[in-house]
Fold:
Amino acid sequence: MKKILLATTLIAASTGFAAAEVALSGTARMGITTDTASNDAAFTSRVRIKATATGTTDGGLEFGASMRFDQDGGNDNDAGAVGGGTANDDSNVYISGAFGKLTFGDNDTAANVLVGNVSGVGLTGLGDTNELGYLGQTDTSALYEYSTGALSFALSAGQTVAGNAASNESVSVAAKYSTDQFSVALGYEDVTGDDQLSLGASATFGAATVKVVAMDRDSNADTNYALSVDYTAGAAVVTAFYADHGPVEAMGLGASYDLGGGASVVGGVVDNGTDTVADLGLSFSF
Structure:
């Protein structure tokens, strides 16, 4: 922390770095979780602090980097790879301009970025069973994004490690058309031995927003899909979702109430196909 604060002070004091900026942000939560399988309740809490650095070149190119303080993978800790930097957890580096944005580091695949997931519930995510699951990629990965008007495009590739390239090959491509009222997105992922096609759409009807995602994975017998509805009433948002994971179905109901200043009361209950889990507590953003 002292080193980060010192670096921030030096940048702010230096006229040579007038276009650079380092900022801190974070999230935290505190509450209680329950599980019907064990009939137990437990306390839960988590803190995540993120440092974001940005700058601009004389030619107008924007660049930056971000890192989460709770990362444990390191930025350059893969001794078996030529050049290192292949186990890059919770951090990334980017450069952007009229050509788009290129990011190296801990990225989601292009399909995950543009298609995404339906809404989840709960303070802790309650297992994130609203998510159908993307194939993913090995970090350090590369993600390219470009937008023009209502259209967005993305392309990603996972890290290729010298001497072990086959087990790390991953590519993804996606496109999205988005307006204030609706959006539709299509994504494709290919990893060694498997591939997946994903389709997502959302639409807003007054105070309600409906999202749907469907995925067809080559290694799965059936197409999986998920649906969610978010309803906003003043400072409160009520969310419900249903997800078909093939042999397992999940459904959840939750709500959040904005207290202002970055604080919210959040809770939910989820039937994950095996048992029922629930949580309730306070969520903070800084």
